[in-house]
Amino acid sequence: MTLKTLHYIMDPQCGWCYAAAPLIDALTELTAVNIKLHGGGLFSGANKRQLSAGFHQQIITMDKKITGLTGQVFSSTYYSQVLEDQQRVVDSDTPIAALLAAQSLGVDPVLMLHQMQITQFVEGRSQSDISNLTAIVNELGVDSAAFLNAFTLINGEKTAQHINNSRNMLHLVGGNGFPTLTFEHADGAFTKLEHSSYYGQPKQWIAYVVRVLKTID
Length: 217
Fold this sequence. Notes:
- By secondary structure, this protein is of the alpha+beta class.
- Helix content is 53%, strand content 12%.
- The protein has ten helices and six strands; from the N terminus they run βααββααβαααααββα.
- A four-stranded mixed beta sheet has the order 2-1-5-6. Strands 3-4 form a two-stranded antiparallel sheet.
- Helix 5 runs antiparallel to helix 6, helix 5 (93-104) packs across helix 8 and helix 6 (109-121) crosses helix 7.
- The chain is globular, with a radius of gyration of 17 Å.
């Protein structure tokens, strides 16, 4: 089976992308699949939002649904340290820039994303805090100065362009939100994966993906 590129259109701040993390982990075991991340900028630019009371409650409701479907943990520390911070602006630009910077230094972006998700949703340390992001890449073997230099170069215009390209791809493949996963064919066509019915079922998910791969081999 030839190597297939799986485009994963996501956002580090997206709770449903955290819900999909075990499915993405399972995919890394398939040697025929090369996962390419695209940060969609859920809370980028004009979409950055402060944690209003209504938005706060929406997030709690969604988190509970995600835990019920997948078993993914949203810790009490996350709620007290991140979600209860009324001054916090929910920001996707910073974590997406960090992903791109880490990848430019040889870090596996899927691993980086998952560490960022754990840092925020389990350990209660914001993904928008550059010191937290630097600590993550340190744990992954990257020098702080090198990361901060790469982050400075990528944050801003290059990150905005990446987000714009990701949104264009989301439209191109017929996605309607994050996460969207789609295989690219050799002729440039795409086959979108219907992942939502496999939350919490990684074995069944892999069987489904293998079936899809056979149809596009």
